[in-house]
Sequence to fold (1380 residues):
Amino acid sequence: MQKVAVIGASGYTGVELLRLLAGHPQAEVVAVTSRQYEGLPISEVFPSLGSYFDLRCESLDVKAIAARAKVIFTALPHKSAMEVVPAFLDAGCRVVDLSADYRLHDQQVYEQWYQPHSSPELLAEAVYGLPELYRAQLVGARLVANPGCYPTSVALGLAPLLEERLIKHQSLIIDSKSGTTGAGRGLKESSLFCEVNEGFKAYGIAGHRHTPEIEQTLGQLAGEPVKVSFTPHLLPVDRGILSTIYADLCQDSSTSELLALYRERYEDEPFVRVLPEGQLPNIAFVRGTNLCDIGLVVDERNARVIVVSALDNLCKGAAGQAIQNFNLICELDECAGLAAAPLFP
Amino acid sequence: MQKVAVIGASGYTGVELLRLLAGHPQAEVVAVTSRQYEGLPISEVFPSLGSYFDLRCESLDVKAIAARAKVIFTALPHKSAMEVVPAFLDAGCRVVDLSADYRLHDQQVYEQWYQPHSSPELLAEAVYGLPELYRAQLVGARLVANPGCYPTSVALGLAPLLEERLIKHQSLIIDSKSGTTGAGRGLKESSLFCEVNEGFKAYGIAGHRHTPEIEQTLGQLAGEPVKVSFTPHLLPVDRGILSTIYADLCQDSSTSELLALYRERYEDEPFVRVLPEGQLPNIAFVRGTNLCDIGLVVDERNARVIVVSALDNLCKGAAGQAIQNFNLICELDECAGLAAAPLFP
Amino acid sequence: MQKVAVIGASGYTGVELLRLLAGHPQAEVVAVTSRQYEGLPISEVFPSLGSYFDLRCESLDVKAIAARAKVIFTALPHKSAMEVVPAFLDAGCRVVDLSADYRLHDQQVYEQWYQPHSSPELLAEAVYGLPELYRAQLVGARLVANPGCYPTSVALGLAPLLEERLIKHQSLIIDSKSGTTGAGRGLKESSLFCEVNEGFKAYGIAGHRHTPEIEQTLGQLAGEPVKVSFTPHLLPVDRGILSTIYADLCQDSSTSELLALYRERYEDEPFVRVLPEGQLPNIAFVRGTNLCDIGLVVDERNARVIVVSALDNLCKGAAGQAIQNFNLICELDECAGLAAAPLFP
Amino acid sequence: MQKVAVIGASGYTGVELLRLLAGHPQAEVVAVTSRQYEGLPISEVFPSLGSYFDLRCESLDVKAIAARAKVIFTALPHKSAMEVVPAFLDAGCRVVDLSADYRLHDQQVYEQWYQPHSSPELLAEAVYGLPELYRAQLVGARLVANPGCYPTSVALGLAPLLEERLIKHQSLIIDSKSGTTGAGRGLKESSLFCEVNEGFKAYGIAGHRHTPEIEQTLGQLAGEPVKVSFTPHLLPVDRGILSTIYADLCQDSSTSELLALYRERYEDEPFVRVLPEGQLPNIAFVRGTNLCDIGLVVDERNARVIVVSALDNLCKGAAGQAIQNFNLICELDECAGLAAAPLFP
Fold:
């Protein structure tokens, strides 16, 4: 049994980690922290967890927690994460960090999009936790930088095409749509029910902070720098990301040829489902799971491929992938705690 | 490993049964039937199930299915169910029937609210599958009449008060609200997205078919006939039933006294959570689980108690309870396959 | 052309007032105030209003505003309202106050449910702005206490029965459900999209502040004190209140007899629609309008009548009724600005 | 007063036409037809319309209707429309046809995407009813082909850029998202509440029938043939279309320069709002109106412009634009009946 702690448990990523850990056969949650709710039972912060956990939120005392837990999930905002991750590592813990703080390998790029980095020396060690691309490095790793939700949907959606050099990557356009849990649990007028419900909007056009993370992974896949236009939108649903990705083809390819390539590439991946020709993903069909569904269509009139990928932003886009990474670094069954089928409807 | 079949798999109760069975450690689904989708892989009917089942929908051939499966879940409309249940029993299967056909003990009452009954001789044998009330009879039973969603929420909400004779049952008013999966997957204008979304309405006032089922259970609890006013409403959500129940108190009681009674009554029940004083249930906190949350408040100005119960209509209100009953009749761990925590948000 | 001001324009009641005033043929909005958004164009606070208003939010300077406007809509929280209403009256304005501050005639009751009242001398003058009950007093009034959303739905739903002494009012149970705009635009975790969406809950059971307001009106209709059990619930929709009201009948009456009574009572009311037998209200059918739809069913098995009323909480439950009252006090056509048909879907 | 009829009144476009006509100062609805609901009061088909219309649905008898109405709104599916439009014209009526049947000028293109055309001789006469582009031709026209919802959002979003030859049109990518009323009121499993709610998907990739209509208009604006990749998606909301449009720039331009161009182009258009720099459209801010909101951002890293346009698919995307066209062909005030402000929230 692995003893784990969830740092920053009162956000949506926190509750999703706890939901999944409640059903994990080899993990035991020994501590949860929350500044806002210190002292309160976690089952009062999230009544859904009542009868699953008998823990109170504590303050973030690295030593005290490291004395009990061996693996730490940091579900903190960027900047807050890097203030504690090094200390947990120093205390002998492994860390799966769900923030953006260790995702970018290049300190300069990080500082351009975020703010100064206080532990840049860890950037080289941190493994980018996308198992479908970096599984070998994750096994046994000490620090995992758990990917962003949008970047996961894009990297899985494009990996086969970039690996095979089938698309002109200067043409890449990524039109993504995310459920509202992606905006977090912080109090903002724009997150109120009546502001989101029955609405739909784009935001952060040409400037969203997931852009460099997307470009880093796509660049590694392509073997050369990649620039994308990335447009996120806010969906009036709780969960789900769907990315519609446009790329000009280098040569004629049919929908069925490309689907065959995808099926081969992802054949052994437990969490990627390549849909049959004629079917397209729907965020409703992956709800609550670590799955990523992928479909594609070649637009022959325009020599362009249109890939659609769907995942649950809280799960494969955050907490589920973190559990998958936890399983890998602890050398457990990669699917442990992640086997439940999607909740539809 | 118990071999099971799901009859009528293409409805919302069917997909929920399959979702839960996919994660059940001691059940193997060997057949699914659907008249409408005969021949189609179930993963095309419900793409959410892709990679979980490699089964095609077949037509309903009792012999062929009974040769493979030992326990049958019939997820058919009333009337259709009683056309096949006796044959499955005759073929040596056990049956958990999710329709209304075997819930009412009195044939006359059944025929008054539904239509003629073709196998009334089974009414005496069928066990009403509410384990919190009838667990002893369920262990080893051959035919379970799985309760309706509304009646489950009402019976669990009122059992302690009726068992202790604390309320005037001629005053009982039940105001229930159900998510739209309760209306089924059939094609009706009133079930279209744009007819339901951003709407809310009552329906079937003073005439809903769950009324006699509610009254039967409450009457058994009270030890004498009970009549209720039952008003169902349609909520623009996928899942969830919340029942707000009003009853005049026979004597002065405080909120905390009654909550203590509930906690004691449900102490050993794995699927009933009695909320602390000051907290009230929300359907969001039981989503996807077999849980029933209960809260209550005494309205002292009016000497009345107001009980609120919440459950997931597809789960504790249908498929989850069916699995719980399956566990009981097969003498498995009652919670097998039902342990996952609620999906919130 | 009546020059009007909206005090507290940045809430949901504020934007609804402005939406309706934008289309009012005899009103001109000359000032809008907001502490939070002082200096900002109202079309930035509410982009929906872009091209309809060329006004900036100003701070609340009674003299400056009274110099320009003759009628004031105060859309402030209770307590804040009574801090400015007397000054506007002193400055010669008429006021339609949308807060709770002048709704209760009895200062003691107000202070028991709210806090000390700073202008109790106005309680006797203020006219409770429910035109269907108090039209005569509203014509030409100086101060209107615009009713609460829940109380409007209840009073209209019960008036004919109470006026005719047809129900036992000690049996009154009111189960109401409101859209989330009713919770206001303030920042609260419980108002976040992901906390409300796909959820449903009761709140404030046996203690909601609309209870004394409901009882005051029902008591006037009944001619003697009335006590009710009132349970509000939160619906995951933007707009709408539906109240399901239960009352024991004093004598046998049929659904059609009672509907005939309602039709007669409301025959000349432009904003009350009594539905035909067999039809029940849906909040979707009154969206965006000043209408209140009413249906009812007699539960003969229990000698009880169940009335269902539906209105738009922002419109007939707040801003629309305020415009109706404005029309009355200014002796304009009562329907001016309120004629648009409901937005369905 | 213009006497008008709505043919095919029982769909969502039909009810929206009636909603708007109910408030039109110079239109009187003298007939509504519905095959499905013949004989029923329209207020039973749509209870929202109760007290606004005292009409019964009749069968489609061209002579009988042409004897009463001078302008006909045909809200029928394609193919059904062209079966009656010529007869109404022959009977001396003007027609605003909301189907696709007269939108494409080229019979071959129509027949390639739809089916054989039975009145191709009218294609040359029909005026494409996008007033912002073709106002002069619409004044006094006899037959208006009311544009599709997606094409309207795209044409208004791109007109200034194409007219000024600022973009490389071979690069055009259109990623559109529509509310569910766009799928119509027909009974389809995919339109059920529980299939749409909390879901999101693309459909009809590289093959949607609005593609040739989009390309026809863009080609006219560009002065040469244009091909686009057009991807529609289904939003879990009632109303609204948001199109995110990507185009490579021919030369360096800044966001503010392009916005200035848009403001100038649309300066006198009553129904187009160009948003200030830094603001982006949201479908919630145009709900229920004939408005189209447009925002844009230049992605300087990729020399690409990203335009976002939002409208209400039932209103500016269908019925509202039809009323605007009706006003033009009858030489009424173009805004008559369309002045109401958006319903937010």
Notes: The mean pLDDT of chain D is 97. DSSP finds eleven helices and 14 strands in chain D. Residues 8 and 76 of chain D are 5 Å apart (CA to CA). The longest strand of chain D covers residues 167-178.
